[in-house]
Amino acid sequence: MELRNTFIHHVYFWMKNPESKEDLQALIAGLEALSVVKEIKYFHIGTPAPTDREVIDNTYAVSWLNIFETEADQDVYQTHPLHLKFIEDCSALWSKVKVYDSIQHG
Hints:
The chain has three helices and four strands; from the N terminus they run βαββααβ. The protein is an alpha+beta fold. It has a four-stranded antiparallel beta sheet with strand order 2-3-1-4. The chain is globular and about 40 Å long. 15% of the residues are buried. The model has no long low-confidence stretch (mean pLDDT 94).
């Protein structure tokens, strides 16, 4: 599958309490609630795969991949009430967030 002319928004979360299964489930539930934002065309909620190579960073707890048709759709998502509610409700759960946004090359 090739994704053409899309905007990729990939977020990685590190938990404040990495041993807490309840906190992890609360974050995942928050992301699932957020996934209904209509501008999101595809999404994936993931946890680190059991791979082990020198180049792999598996120190994060949850990844949140979003595919938007346009950068403008991603801009709408950033200020969407469900996104703002997710941040308000879940930001106490994470200690660090890292975001990688990308567009198709060429």
